[in-house]
């Protein structure tokens, strides 16, 4: 059984062009503007990278990956092997 989520009306002032862009993006996904914006905000508020992802991001920023051999993309197995997995 799902619990009802309490919701509260809130008013925001946003630029007209931003609202029009959000409406367009919502329409492309066959969603209401409210649902589209709520989903974006939930993602921004609650999707934090885990430790493994943070470590990978730090490694990528450090430039360590730039000197590595190119990945073999001929198959999944070849790619994993070229990644050292």
Give a quick rundown of the structure.
It is built from four helices and no strands. The chain is mainly α and 85 residues long. It starts with 15 loop residues before the first helix and ends with a helix.
Q: Number of helix segments?
A: 4
Q: Helix coverage percent of residues?
A: 40-55%
Number of DSSP-assigned strands: 0
The global form is: elongated
| SSE run | HHHH
Q: Could you please describe the fold and organization of this structure?
A:
With 85 residues, this protein is mainly alpha-helical. It has helices at 16-28, 33-46, 51-62, 76-82. The chain starts with 15 loop residues before the first helix and ends with a helix.
Tell me the layout of helices and strands:
Layout: H1 16-28, H2 33-46, H3 51-62, H4 76-82
Helix pairs in contact: 1-2
Key features of this structure:
85 residues, mainly alpha, 4 helices, 54% helix, elongated
């Amino acid at each position: 059984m799902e619990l009802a989520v309490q919701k509260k009306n809130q008013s925001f002032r946003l630029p007209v062009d931003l609202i029009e862009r959000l409406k367009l993006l919502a329409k492309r996904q066959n969603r209401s503007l409210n649902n589209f914006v709520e989903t974006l905000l939930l993602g921004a508020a609650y999707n934090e990278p885990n430790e493994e992802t943070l470590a990978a991001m730090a490694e990528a920023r450090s430039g360590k990956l730039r000197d590595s051999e190119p990945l073999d993309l001929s198959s999944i197995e070849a790619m994993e092997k070229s990644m050292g997995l």
